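yo, histidine kinase is done. seq:
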Amino acid sequence: MTDFSHDTLGICYWNGTLGPFDIGIVGSGSALKVLVDMIYNEAFREFLPDMRLVAFSNAGRRSDIKAYCETCSPVYETHEEMLANHPEINLIIEITGDNAVSSRIRRSLPPHVSLLDHREVVFLCGLHDMALVKGNYMNNLDHQRTLLQSIIDEIREDILLLDKSGNIVDLNRIVWQRAGSTRKELLGKPCWQALRLRDGADFCNRLDPACPYHKTLQSERKEEALVTRINEDGLLQYYRLYAYPIFDIRGNMSHVMVMHRDITERTHREKYQQQRDKFAIIGEMSTYLAHEIRNPLFAVGGFANALLKSPGLGEKEREKVRIIVDETMRLDKMLANMMRFARPSQTAHGPADALAICRDTAELMSVGYGKRGYRFEVTDEGSLPPVHGDPDAIKQCVVNLIKNSIEAMPAGGAVSLDLRLEGGEVALRVGDEGVGMNEQEQDKVFSPFYSTKENGIGLGLAMIKKIIEEYGGSVSLTSKPGKGTTVTLFLQPVLDVPDSIETEGEHS
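structure:
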């Protein structure tokens, strides 16, 4: 009796207690091809014990065998002759289709030789067909799996499949390549050990509570979140995180797929458009404020100044009037700044000598701040082309940036002004070693009316950005808390400058 066993999964398998079968085939025909395929094809090894084809008999013409089998096994007239020459045979397979032949073989076989007659071979043929079907399905499945993996690997977003403990079950190529590891090395590790920013810096150093993975574990629904990170260069990055629940065949959530999408460029474009919309609104507001607020404000200020000169006021009353005068002046200055910010710039567009502007500005600021512990260092890479923009307006931008740096270093320090040609633009960097900015401050730093200063109105960096963009340039900011801030003005070069046009250096 054939010996079978069951493993812990309840799957029946051949346990190998019997030795390999040395087979003699009696007869020929179409079933022979099936048998030979099952004996020699490795795809059937998981279904059947080891088998070796030894000899044939009752085959009729040798050509009948060669039609299905190219083996060199010997062929005999009768099964008795075959057994006499090959005593190692322990299994006879009869495929003549003749019941009389089958009965005669069964009566004559020695005890150690088993028999499968043509009726039982039908089950082997069925097993053969099922194995072929399975092979086709497995090939298709492997093809689909390879295709799907290739598609996922080509996706630029980070994709990870996590178990319910946050450990990696699978991930796409871009994740393990950016992490500097192999896919195999990261399987089973916590997700935060694999995730990186685009420059290779760690995305996080623990399971971040802000990650939608945690919400999906609780809700069993798709969740998403917007997070910001500062890369190694201090540049603010925006990421959209998605988490999708994965359910098993019983409907239970077994895994969570997490995807990270870098939306930095898109976010900057959206913020740029939002700022343009804000500028339009501010323009309308400034017109209203100029007509409806400034006139009564002048009246209040005028009467307050008149009262201040009155000899009949006591010192306490005089102090209160001084406050009114100061506040009306402050409101008038705020209105002027708002209107100047909202209206298009009327200044000329160059050419301007950016290096001369930086040297003049550094020399000017050294007079007032040099003795208070501040140093102003100007560096450049050599010959630079003139740039588009009004020299005075660019100089004012640099002055405001230096003042911001000074305020970020109350105990003194170095302010660097560096100029070089980058990507066809003149990059003017103003950097400090001050307190720096966190992610939330960087996110709002160019927004009108946002300020970290106690008495600021939030138009400094927004105004600088507006002026430089009107000249065809752009502005970027990098910062790290405790390590300082650098603002870069990207200025458009003037490639052909007529000799008759004076440069900024000549103006100054």
